[in-house]
Amino acid sequence: MTAFATGDAAVTPLARRRLDRDDVLMRLGICLLIAWLCIAMALPLWALLSKSFQNQNGEFIGLANYIRYFSTPALFISVWNSVMIAVVSTAFVLPLAFVYAYALTRSCMRWKGLFQALALIPILAPSLLPAISLIYLFGNQGFLKELLFGGQIYGAGGIILAQVFYCFPHALIILVAALSMADARLYEAASALGASKMRVFFTVTLPGAKYGVISAGFVIFTLVITDFGIAKVIGGRFNVLATDIYKQVIGQQNFEMGAVVGFILLIPAVIAFTADRIIQRRQVALLSARAVPLEPKPVPRRDWAMFAFCAAVGGLIFGILAVSAWASVITRWPYNLTLTLNNYAFGDFDTDGWGAYWNSLSLAIWTAVLGTGIVFVGAYLLEKTRGFALGRALAQLLAIMPMAVPGLVLGLAYIFFFNAPWNPLGFIYGTLAIMVVNSMTHFYTVCHLTAATALKQMDPEFEAVSASLKVSLLRTLVRVTVPVCLPSILDISIYLFVNAMTTVSAVIFLYSTNTKLAAVTIVNMDESGFTAAAAAMAMTIVFTSTAVKIAHVLLTRRLERTTQAWRRR
Amino acid sequence: MTETKLASGTTDPYLKIERLSKLFGTFTALKDISLEIFPREFVCFLGPSGCGKTTLLRAIAGLDVQTSGRIFQGGKEISALPSSHRDFGIVFQSYALFPNLNVSANIGYGLVSRGMPRVEIETRVNDLLRLVGLPDSGRKYPAQLSGGQQQRVAVARALALSPGMLLLDEPLSALDARVRAHLRIEIRRLHQRLGITTIMVTHDQEEALTMADRIVVMNQGAIEQVGTPTEVYRKPASAFVADFVGTTNFLPGVVAGPGHVRFGDINLACELDIHFGPGSDVTVAIRPEDVVVRNIGPATPNAFSARVAEIEFLGSFCRVGLAVNGGDPSLVADFSINAVRDLAIAEGKVMPVALPPDRLRVFPRQTLTP
Asked: Could you tell me if residue A292 is inside a domain?
C-alpha cells in the first residue's frame, strides 16, 4: 500500500497553490492579530498565573499562596459570598427579565418602545449608580430607611438589589432576542390540538426560549461575580472576591495574594463561559427559513397585566436613576434640599475635577475607534482567509477568550505584565494607552462575535468573485464589505464607547495620577464621603452615554434611509 | 468521443485536467479525474449533490486547491496558480452581486481596478448590458432586480474582463421553472455568439441535455461518462448514468449464452460484452419510451406478453406499469396517447410487447444507490 501510494504520488505530484499578494497579506494580518491578542491578553494572564505561585521576592513557592488562602477563613468566605450573591441576583433577574421580555415580544400592550428604552437605561450607567441611589434611599440617612425595619442596606442585600438593576438590561436583551424568534405555525398547531394556554406556554414558548434563558443566566452570574463597583460602594463589611483583590493589591500591596484571588475569580467566570459555549453549540436553528413569524394578538386582560408589570419594573428602574439625578442637584442631603449645580463642580471634591471626565471621554473615543478597527479587521481575516487553518484556529480561540476574563483580573494581569522590568512595552504603563488596550481587550469578544455574525451573513463568494475579476481583497473590503457591514460596525463602536465610559473594574488598577477616569473618581469621591458629587459624576457619564446612544440611533436611521435602495430585501 | 473531437475540430484541448484528486480530511471528493475540454466547447458537469462536480469547478478556478494532479489552460500549467492569476469569469448560484453597488458598478468592478479610463468602462458596461438584454438597468441596485435579471448581471460581470473561460456554478437553480427554461436558451445563445469555452455545473439533467456540447456525468468523485447529450442518453456507460439521466427500467437477468440474457422466463437477445461469462448476474436497462407495443409479429425479437397493471395519464403520453413473468409490475413503458387509443390499452389487458435488442444496455449487476 505504501509503495503504491509513493508510486502514485510520483505520477501526480501533490499540489500546493502558490500564494498571491492577498493571501500573504491576510496571513500576515492573522499573525499580527495573534501577536496582539497574546500581548494584550494571553501573556498578561500568564504573568498573573505565575505570580500566584511566587513569594514577595519573586521566588517560586508552589501552592503555598493558595494553601494560605484556603486556610484563612476571612479570605475564603468571599468565595461563598460571591457565589451566593451571584446566584441570588440571577434568581431575581431571570424571572423579572423574562416576563418583561415576554411583554415586549408577545403581548399587544401599549408603549412597548418606551418600556424597551426605559429598561435599557442601566446599560448606559456605571454599575456604581444604582449603589449610590440605594444609599440615598436606604442608607444611614436614607429617606426610606424605615422600610428596612432596622436592617442595613450595606451588605449582601444592597449588593443584590443594585446588581438586579444593573444586570436587568443585559438579561433582557438576550431574552427579547430569544422570544422574538417564534414560529406561528407551532402555536397554530398547538391550539388546533386543543392545548390550553398554560400547556402551550410550557410546551412551545419555554422550550423555544430555553437557550436564551440559560445564556442569560450565565451572563448575569458572570456579571455579578466579577463586578467590583457595586460591592465597593454598598458592600460595607460584606467581602466578595472582587473587593478582596482590590484590598489585597491596593490596601495591603500584597500582589501575590491578589494574583491568587484573581485566579480564583477567573474560575467561576471560565466555568460559566465554557458551559454557555457548550450549550450554545447544542442549539440548532429552531427557526427554519420557512417559519411564519408570530404576530401577537391582543388579549386585553393579559395585555393590561403586562402593562402593569412593565410599568412597575420600568418605574423602579426610572426611580433608581431619578434618585441619583436628584441627589446630584441638591445642596446637602438631608438638611438642605435647595437645588444647585455645585455638585458638578468636581474640582471641589477631587483634585482632578473635570479632568477625569475628559480622560474618560478620550479613553472611550480611542477605545471605540481603535477597537472597532482591530475587531472588524480581525473578524474579517478570520472569516475570509482561505487555508492557514492552524493560525485561524489559534486566533479564533484567542478572540473568544477575553469574555471569560473578568475586567479586574485583566487589569491586575496588566500590572504584572507591563510593569515587569524586562518588558520593553513597559513604557505604556501608567498612560492612557494601557487603559485603551485593556478596554479594547476586555470587551473584545462581544464585538468580535457581532462582527463575525455580520460577515457570515455576507455572500461567501464575494472574495472569489473579486479574485476572478483581479480585484484586490483590500479594495473589496473598502468598497463592499465595510459599507454593507456599516450598521454592525456602528453597533460595535457604540458598545465599546459606552463600556469604556462606564467600566470601573477593568481600569481600577491601571489609572495613574494623570489618567484618572470619571468612573474611578466616583469610587474615590464616595470613599471620601462626597456622595452627591459621586452621583453627579455618575449622571455625567449617563448623559454622555445617552447622548452618544441617541446619536447612534439617529445615524443608523439615516443610514437605513440613504441605503434603502440596496438594503431592501 | 471520436465524433466530439471532430465536432470541435482537431485542435489541442483548451483545458486539460490530469489525474486530479481532492481529499477533505479522509473524504475523497475527487478521485483521479482526467478530462480534456476543447476551445469554444460548452461542457456540463452533471451529477447528484456531493458528486464532486462543484469541487472540480472550484479546483479549475483555483478556489479549492486539488490535493494532487495538474491542470493546464491554453497550454500553460495553472495547477499552482492562485485564482487571481488564472483566466476565468465565474457566476455563482447566489450570483454574489455586490448589494451596495448598482448594476453598472457591479459589471465594471474589475474594469475600474484595471485602470481603464472612465469613458471606456462606460462603453464596455453598456455593451455588456445590451448583450445580456438589460440595456436600461445600469442604475438599479441588485435588490431591485428579479432573480433572472440578477443572473444576467452576474453573467455580464463575469464576461467584463473578456476571460478565456466562463465557469457557471448551478447558475439557474435559484430560479423558478419558467425563468429557468428561458435563461437556458439565452445562455446557450450567448455562448454561440461569443464562442467562449464554458463549463457549467448542474444537477439538472434536462439543463445538461439541452445546453451542453458534451456532458461529464460524475458520481462519488469520479467521472462515469463523458459524451454528447445523445451519447449519454442513448448509450449510458453505466447503470448509474442510465438511472441518473432520464428514466430507465432495470431488469435483473442472468447471462444465458453469447448475446442472450434470461430475464425470468423470458429470453432476451442483446448486444453483450464478451467479458460477461454465462451465468453471471447482470442488469438489463431499457428506457420506457423504447418499449415497443405496435407491429409485433412472430419474427419480432424479444417479444413476450405482458399484463397492464396500472396506467398513469401524463398528458401527452401514458406511463404504463407492465407485469411480466406473471408477477408484480416490473416494467415501465411510455406509450403515446395514439397507441393507447388504437390498441385500447386498459388495466388488466394482456398484450404482446417487445424490447428491441439495440435498445437494451447490459450492466454488471450491483446494488444501485438512487
From this structure: no
A464 near B CB under 8 A: yes
Question: In this predicted complex, what is the ipTM?
Answer: 0.83
- A303 and A340: one domain? no
pLDDT tens digits along A455-500 = 988 888 999 999 999 999 999 999 999 999 999 999 999 999 999 9
What pTM was computed for the model? 0.87
Cβ separation A12–B61 shorter than 8 A: no
**A6 has a chain B CB within 8 A of its CB:** no
8 Å CB contact of A17 and B157: no
Q: Are residues A455 and A546 in the same domain?
A: yes
Is residue B353 within 8 A of residue B308, CB to CB? The reply is no
* Dist. CA B330–CA B328, nearest whole Å: 6
Instruction: Give, in degrees to the nearest 5, the angle at Cα A472 between A468 and A474.
Output: 140
> Per residue in B233-284, pLDDT tens?
999 999 999 999 999 999 999 998 888 999 888 889 988 877 788 888 999 9
User: Which residue range(s) make up the domain with A154?
Assistant: 72-285+298-327
**Run of H or E residues at B227:** strand B222-227
| Domain match, A281 and A352 both | no
How large is the angle between the packed helices A255-282 and A206-226, nearest 10 degrees?
170
Contact partners, residue A354, CB within 8 Å, separation at least 6:
A346, A347
Q: A353 and A219, same structural domain?
A: no
Q: Is A138 domain-assigned? A: yes
Residues A254 and A387 in one domain: no
- Report d(CA A264, CA A70) in Å as an integer: 11
* Distance, CA of B141 to CA of B157 (rounded, Å): 14
Residue from B73, B83, B112, B167 whose CB has the most chain A CBs within 10 Å, to mutate: B83
Q: How many domains does chain A have?
A: 2
Asked if residue A363 and residue A235 are part of one domain, the reply reads: no
Quick check: helix, strand or coil at residue B344?
coil
Please check whether residue B198 is in contact with residue B44, taking contact to mean a CB–CB distance below 8 angstroms: no
CATH number of the domain within which A337 lies: 1.10.3720.10
Q: Which of B16, B60, B67, B84 to mutate to test the interface with A (most CBs of A within 10 A)?
A: B84
Interstrand relation of B350-354 and B329-336 (parallel, antiparallel or unpaired) = unpaired
Question: What does the pLDDT look like over B2-18, one tens digit per residue?
Answer: 344 444 456 789 999 99
Rounded CA-CA distance A328/A537 in Å is 8
Looking at chain B, the number of H-run helices and the number of E-run strands are 11, 19
Q: Is A523 exposed, middle or buried (0-12, 13-18, 19+ CB in 10 A)?
A: buried
Nearest to B318 by CA among B347, B359, B295: B347
Q: Identify which of B278, B271, B207 has the alpha carbon closest to the alpha carbon of residue B245.
A: B207
Q: Are A275 and A227 within one domain? A: yes
**Closest residue to A12, CB basis, from B19, B84, B100:** B19
Find chain A residues with C-beta within 8 A of B94's C-beta. 459, 461
